[in-house]
Amino acid sequence: MRKSAAIIKPGERYLILLKPYSSIASLPPIPSSLDSEPADLSAQLLSILTRPNWQKHPSLIKLLPYLTPSHVSSLFAFNLDPQTALNFFNWIAHRPGFKHNVHSYSSMLNVLILARSLRLAEKIRISMINACRSIEDVLFVLQVFREMNAADGQLKFEPTLRCYNTILMILSKFLLIDEMKSVYLELLHNNISPNIYTFNAMVNGYCKIGNVIEAELYVSKIVQAGLHPDTFTYTSLILGHCRNKDVGNAYKVFLIMPQKGCQRNEVSYTNLIHGLCEAGRINEALKLFIDMTQDNCCPTVRTYTVLIHALCGSGRKVEALNLFNGMKEKGCEPNVHTYTVLIDCLCKENKIDEARKMLSEMLEKGLIPTVVTYNALIDGCCKQEMIDDAFEILDLMESNNCGPNTRTYNELICGLCKKRKVHKAMALLNKMLELKLSPSLITYNSLIHGQCKVNDLESAYRLLSLMNENGLVPDEWTYSVFIDTLCKEGRVEEAGTLFDSIKAKGVKANEVIYTALINGYCKVGKIDVGHSLLERMLNDACSPNSCTYNVLIEGLCKKKKMKEASSLVAKMLTMGVKPTVVTYTILIGEMLKDGAFDHALEVFNHMVSIGYQPDVCTYTALLHAYFSLGMFEEVDYVIAKMNEESILPDLVTYTVLIGGYARLGLTSRAFDFLKCMVDARFTPSLCTLSILIKNLSHENQMKETRSEIGSDSVDIADVWKTLEYENVLELFEKMVEHGCTIDVSLYGAVIAGFCQARQLEEARRLVHHMKERGMSPSEDIYNSLLDCCCQMGVYTEAVRLVDAMVENGLLPLLESYKLLVCGLFIEGSNEKAKAVFSGLLSCGYNYDELVWKVLIDGLLKMDLVDKCLELLDIMEEKGCQPNLLTYSMLMERLERTENN
Fold it and tell me: Which DSSP helix (H) or strand (E) runs through 731?
């Protein structure tokens, strides 16, 4: 814990104040102008304060912007005249932007005690206690408090009852209950008689942690002392019962208050309203809110905020907004917490624009958003994949001097991983460490999930090692990601081995892990193993959910075991698990594929009859089946039904609709849905674009019959290998005719198609085309071009692209960097390779990931050991040190490569 210069050890702590005034002679001269924080600022300040009329000294005004509470503490160490010290202390407290902290109060307190100005010292001591803003502050003040009480002679300053009561209340506020009990015992030891405020502080402290039994002991002490419990006492007891989730007893206390002659106040009502809301009894809370006027109580901002929070949490947003508007009409201004609750609610409903407007309203009113406010917005943006908007909020947050915390970065990391921008997420891990923020289990789980999402299981395992190295224990969610990824890669036996090992690691498999593994075995056709895992799951007291049964049902359907699949649906019900829309959609989809339309319709109608609303997946399965048989009327019926039920098409639905109409030669209808797709902010897939381009080509050449146009087979790779720039312009022209907007994302999709087919020249031409129309290539477009250049060995252009990206603040994918650096070394361009690598070190990449992907997975896999060591030397020269564990991984791989 930090210690003030004035409070180190008894006998030493005040020596620093006894320096002779002659020490002033050695002070540095006062500078005439200040461009940066001056050196020895406290000493310069002392030089000013020893002069007459120091308040008007021009140099003081220049020093003022740089003064902090720590400078004040240092100043008082120079044995400044007590009256001058007090005058300066009070003067600077009124300067805009300056606020004393517990340390500057402590220093002033020491000066006054030595001067034996004890009446003034008592006021400063009370102010010091009330200035506590953190647990660290409270513990520091408690140490000061005790040392002054234990000191001898002129250094001793015994606490008064008021001082004891104030410190008891601050200990209660920060839930430091053990310390509170110790201070109470010290009070008794010093033969000071507690009063009602002392007992109330103790009652309040215990009630805040829900320890009503202990609180009631102090209520009995109130009576024993000949005092009477008051409104504060009973209000604390209401709080205590509510914290124990015992609203019934809280209500009893609330009801007896008038009988005991105690007037209920706003806090009494608010505590009980909060307890009711926590218990889900919101309507009762609202009634109590209305009844407040019977006791002449007006709802406070906290009363409104508690109710708004409860209404938002139960999906009653309209009522919450009405209450919010009502409080403003009644002159109760919302505070930061009120706005934060609503912003969080709007973000959870994906209404980001409305949430940002509310943030602007806050700022206009002069309210300062907290990290919780900003985090709610950042989380909302990330969940909507609005990553650029999330980083805008981060910039705004930092510009308003609100420091991000671990949760802020966790949300950004999760958002980036969701968008497959794992290299950027890993770079944020660097940023966290720079800001002294400790990555949490959530941080590593998100990054592991991100690496798995881009099919880099090796790096995910490396992150697991780093996680263990940092003292974090992997949980069931960590292992669920690994097991799910292994299964998706078809490595089910490895997944099974990992599954068998986690019990020894103290991790109990949850339903997510079991479901992922069952799904993996079903996907490779091992339904029997899936069934045995279900039985094991039940034996392990892990309850299967609908997802677990759904993967087994889907596996059985794919094996054409429809009877067994239906039986499993029945078994779900006997196990107390209700089938979901997904369950029925799986059955309907498989029946439609088999042409069993009557059976599919029966299941569909049964699903609707028992109260299930078909979702977008159900309707998409129907559309796919109807298109395959050319059943236009049925397609139109499904589309109309979706509109009627307000079910919005997703990316797959649009792909089915566009592909279905295009294959049938109904090009105009296909483009109509393409417009709807683009308007809904979906980017057409390469498959969709391929179908449209092929369809246009057939139409223009007039060489294909309608039946040939309707062929289901579209070889995407073949389309893009033969596609030309002019074909794309024709596609764009057709899209514009149908009202589509050609934006950067659409250009990006087409350029990605060209790049995957190694059609670099066509991709270049399209980039030029978009630039002519005032659009700048996105990071994804640059990365597509860069990857294409590296795959084709066009390294000179790849280097130029990297330079352009870095210049525009964009981060190339490390996979491309790996190909580029290795390619340059292989072709003999050693200096250029080293220059490229040296440049990327200043781009903010995570050094561990850089070593994993460029040095280990790149150079060492190609047996370029010497080149790897050269690049490692560059990293060390630039002070770019990877984690020791990563360094060990590298050394181990180097040794293995050299031995081989």
Answer: helix 725-737
